[in-house]
Design a protein that fits this description.
mainly beta; single chain; 50% strand; 2 helices; 11 strands; 199 residues
């Protein structure tokens, strides 16, 4: 009886998840990137290599979507070990004390075609602030393994000082070592395993 109850419960949970439009980030086919200006003359880009997230939506165009993305700060990577360790340090991300940053999306609004704005709260270190991001929805498809896939690009900009990422080194000539503004760019492929056929 207990095994039968467990089986029926799992079926109910899976059915409910699909009916609500539960999507998870396919991390193997997604990227979370950032770009900052170095010495006011060039851009330096990097990635967070470990992250997860979900989208819940009952509408085909995702306009009622609830979004959550969690990023592990220690996965920060720019291909330069010295720079990476400095940015992981106490003055910047302080990854030892704040192992994650979290975005909670509160509203996805269509602006034109497949373009949206996404508003929500971004928490970095011990600071939570509202942020508005631009979203492009590339469509939904069914892959060869029977999974529903949806593709999005999310872009935006934040001021790192707003989140106490506060190292502010200058050259002798008074040029900022790293810009205050950081550009965010996320390519997200979402998956709904065992989802219903897309029509």
């Amino acid at each position: 009886m207990n095994k039968l109850f467990l089986f029926l419960t799992l079926i109910f949970i899976q059915t409910k998840a699909h009916s609500q439009g539960m999507w998870m980030i396919d991390v193997a086919n997604s990227q979370v990137m950032f770009t900052a200006t170095h010495l006011s003359i060039t851009e330096v880009s990097g990635v967070f290599r470990t992250f997860s997230g979900s989208v819940t939506s009952t509408k085909k165009d995702f306009t009622d979507a609830n979004v959550k993305i969690t990023i592990e700060t220690n996965s920060f990577y720019t291909s330069n070990d010295l720079r990476d360790e400095e940015i992981k340090g106490e003055a910047m991300l302080n990854t030892g004390k704040f192992p994650t940053m979290v975005f909670i999306g509160k509203g996805l609004k269509k602006t034109s075609g497949n373009n949206y704005t996404l508003t929500g709260d971004l928490t970095i270190k011990d600071v939570t602030k509202p942020i508005t991001l631009e979203v492009t929805y590339f469509g939904t498809i069914r892959d060869n393994w029977g999974n529903n896939k949806a593709g999005f690009k999310i872009t935006g900009k934040l001021n790192r000082f707003d989140y106490n990422i506060s190292q502010d080194t200058e050259t002798k000539a008074g040029v900022k070592l790293v810009s205050a503004d950081v550009v965010i760019s996320c390519n997200l492929e979402m998956v709904q395993p065992g989802g219903r056929e897309i029509k």
